[in-house]
């Protein structure tokens, strides 16, 4: 019985480790996408053209892997938030979106799958 409990704990911790930290699940995306100055500062952070907030630094670190895995480690809430933010960047700042794609997926190998993911909801 103890072995079963230990095994269950290990499986739970492995599964939890396969997802991004949920501390930003309640990040105020609506404020970000409705405030052009704030959105632009996040874009500049992601492009190494401006200073980053603590959140921006964390998002920037996760962005290449999120693109590569089509947000495979994202929670459902993070997927929703990422779709909203990326769509806002694509609509308001298409040139900067292209820069972000080139920076984080220089070969373009993951572009089609990530675009499908973004349009998915």
Automatic annotation (TrEMBL):
Source species, domain of life: Eukaryota
Span of the signal peptide: 1-16
Keywords, in A-Z order: Signal
InterPro entries per UniProt: A10/PebIII, OS_D_A10/PebIII_sf
Name the UniProt record assigns to this protein: Ejaculatory bulb-specific protein 3
Organism of derivation: Papilio machaon (Old World swallowtail butterfly)
Higher taxonomy: Eukaryota, Metazoa, Ecdysozoa, Arthropoda, Hexapoda
